[in-house]
Each structure stands twice: as C-alpha cells, then as structure tokens.
Write a structure and sequence with these properties.
The protein is α/β, with parallel strands linked by helices and 426 residues long. The protein has 16 helices and 14 strands. Helices cover 40% and strands 14% of the residues.
C-alpha cells in the first residue's frame, strides 16, 4: 500500500470524509486525494514523493508559487517574535494601508481570518447600514459557507450537486434572492419587485466558482446603477480576484467601484486571512466606533499579516501582472490548440491568470451553461492528467490558477499532457 493510501485510510477515521474542506476529497472525479508534503515554486510533491506541476495553488492564494523565499523569511521572522498577541500590531496597520492604497473602493479595512468571515461580515455591515434584511446573489457564485449565501452556490456545493444544505434555517433562505449571473434583465425584475427591502447585491465580478466566467459587457455597470437606484449597497466579492487580476483587483480593471469589497486568498500569500473594506463612512459603522458588531480573536494574525505584506511587496512590482497574464495566455493558447486537434468537445475561459477548461461545445457565460459541461469526461481527464504529473482542481467547476513561478517548461509539459490525454479519452 502506498503512503498516500495509508494516510487516506487514517484520515477517514478522524476527519469527516477524510478532509477538512469538501473540495479536497476528489469524490466527483472518482479518485482518492493525494497528500501534499512539500512545495517549491510551481511544483508540489505528494507523500509518495511524486512530483506535480500545480494549478490549484492553494485555490488561488499562491500568486508567487509555493514557498517563495521572501514570504518564508517574513513569516519565520514574525513567528520568532510571537504567533499571536490579542493586541494591535504595527504590521496590521501597514497591511491595511497598502490595501487602501491599492483597491479603489477601500478607505478603511477590517482584517479577518478567512474569505467566509469577510463575506459574512460584509453582508452584516450592509444590513446594518441600510436597515434592510434581503440580499441578492447570483446562481453559481460561492461566497463562503455563510447560511444565507449557500443558496444556489458554486464551488464545492456545485461540484457535489448540493442545492442547499441541512442546517440552514428556512428564514435565512427566504431573505436570499437569486438571479442568473450575467442576466441584467432578471436582476431588474427582482429589484423592481423587491428593491426597497434589499440591503445589498453581492457578486463575484469575475465568477470563479462555477469555473471561470467573465462578466458580460455592461453587467457590472448595470448592477452598480440598480443598487444605487434602490439604496442598496453593491458588494464585490474579490476573495479570488483581488490582487490576482490586478493590483487593485478586478474593480480597478473594469472601472466599477463597489460600496464594499471582500478580500482573501492572495492577500495572505498562502496563510489564512481575509478582509473587507469600504469608504470610511461605511466602515465607521462597525464596533467600536459604531453599533454593528464584528470581532475575531486571530484577526490580523501576525504570521498571516507578515506573509501578506511580503506578497504585496512583490506584486506591486512594475510589470508583475502583465508577466503573470502572459504566462496564462501561453497556457490558454496551448490548451485551445490541443482541443482543436482532438475530437473532444471543450472550450477554455480565461481572465488574467485564472482559467477553466470546460468539457462542452457551448460558450460558458453563466450557471446554466456551466452545468451543461460533461463531468464524466472531466473526471477521466483529471485522473489521466494527475497520472502524468499535472495537479488540477478536482472539479469541472473550479478555476485553474497560474502563478509567477510557472515556467514555459511547465506550460509545455501541461499542454503535451493535455494533448496526450485528449487522444486517450476520445
């Protein structure tokens, strides 16, 4: 029995489903997960010392790849001074200051410990500011495992075909309105009917949890206008896209400024962290200045902040995102060429350094189109790619992530593997 198999059997005894997050279980693709023991740059090694080119990248958090020397050095230095204090530290303010400088919508920031905490807190803030209860979200968009945000959620819930989940009170579901992503007409109908009771519209500006789906022209601008017209707040969930698609997130690129922004993943450079921010007049409604309560013992954790600061310094370099996008473009072109040379129906969606290869001949521009993808073929593709040393997200409905550590050699290895696999599973 391999070391991976032994670890899996042991994990099943003590962890629900053998994992601490369902997306890691690999159930939809019919294999057991590998256990990572180390990573360096674009590569990871499993418990049997097999090497893989990694496109999971901690689900998008690792813009700089694994074990970047400057991040390792910064975190180790912080750990030597103390892992947590329960008191303010100078570095918390420095990280918040950088975020406020980089992200257009943000003047003040509250650090938390995860993306889920960030979205949960942003929704509470919006409800507190507006005095309203209802929220509008989009089918296939995942905003963490918050009760009211699990309705028609993407990511693991979509992968496991879970339309909702036991444990979420019906009253919470009743306060959540949903619309198809990229369908402004449907949003307008809802806002015409319910707008006076809607506290916020929350959206991934680029959907990344039903696979990568870019916004149609005018979609985000329309949401901005509709929210303002009815007195609701617009929340951009940039937990995935923040700092990955641009220094100021996708909002910097599209020119649409939300009222509240949530951040995570790349903000901590691989350490657990999240944040939400907005104009000062909104953020000042939070305790202790205002009446809206939010707190966290490990918020602004020194190790996460140290990693985040080291990462921020690197991505602020001139040309960083242009170089990252070019690496992803090379991969995209290789995938498209490999598909065109095969008899498999597939298409590639890419925005910046995020991409998804959908096994469908249809253009994927929303939730319904994503659901049309052939998950059985994806499962065969995933297994064959892993056997060739390429680690992909184990779901048709997730993004592949390219880091600044990925090389042309990595892209060639990946495209060669794709070309071989597509001919094999035809």
């Amino acid at each position: 029995m391999s070391r991976n198999e032994t670890l899996w059997k042991e994990a099943l005894k003590y962890l629900p489903g053998g994992v601490n997050s369902p997306a890691r279980a690999c159930c939809p693709v019919g294999v057991e997960p590998i256990f990572a023991v180390r990573g360096r740059g674009s590569r990871i090694w499993d418990a049997d010392d097999r090497e893989y080119v990694d496109y999971v990248c901690s689900w998008g958090a690792l813009l700089l790849g694994h074990a970047h020397p400057k991040i390792v050095e910064s975190v180790a230095s912080a750990a030597s001074r103390g892992a947590s204090f329960g008191l303010p530290t100078p570095e918390e303010t420095e990280l918040a200051k950088r975020v406020a400088r980089m992200v257009p919508s943000v003047e003040k920031v509250r650090l938390v410990s995860s993306g889920t905490e960030a979205t949960m807190s942003a929704v509470r803030l919006a409800r507190g500011v507006t005095g309203r209860d209802k929220i509008l979200k989009f089918e296939g968009c995942y905003h963490g495992h918050v009760d009211s945000l699990l309705v028609k959620a993407g990511s693991g819930a979509l992968t496991l075909a879970l339309p909702g989940t036991p444990g979420v009170p019906r009253e919470h579901v009743a306060q959540t309105l949903t619309a198809p992503y990229n369908d402004l007409g449907a949003v307008q109908e809802i806002m015409d009917r319910e707008g006076a009771d809607v506290a916020c519209i929350i959206v991934e500006p680029v959907a990344g949890n039903m696979g990568v789906v870019p916004p149609k022209e005018g979609f985000l601008e329309g949401l901005r206008r509709m929210a303002a017209d009815c007195g609701a707040l617009l929340i951009f969930d940039e937990v995935i896209t923040g700092f990955r698609l641009g220094k100021g997130g996708y909002q910097e690129l599209c020119g649409v400024t939300p009222d509240i922004t949530t951040l995570g993943k790349a903000l901590g450079a691989g350490l657990p962290v999240g944040a939400f921010g907005a104009r000062a007049e909104i953020m000042d409604r939070l305790a202790p200045d205002g009446p809206i309560y939010q707190a966290g013992t490990l918020s602004g954790n020194p190790l996460a902040v140290a990693g985040g600061l080291a990462g921020m310094r690197e991505i602020e370099r001139d040309g960083f995102h242009e170089d990252l996008d070019e690496r992803a473009r090379i991969l995209e072109e290789g995938l498209v060429e490999a598909i065109s040379s095969s008899s498999i129906d597939a298409t590639v969606n890419r925005v910046g350094s995020m991409l998804t290869m959908f096994f469908t001949e249809r253009k994927v521009d929303g939730y319904a189109a994503a659901l049309n993808a052939d998950t059985e073929t994806f499962g065969a593709f995933f297994k064959a790619m892993r056997a060739r040393g390429v680690n992909l997200p184990p779901s048709q409905f997730e993004a592949w992530f390219v880091s600044s550590a990925h090389t042309e050699e990595d892209m060639e290895k990946t495209v060669d593997a794709v070309r071989s696999v597509l001919s094999e599973i035809t």
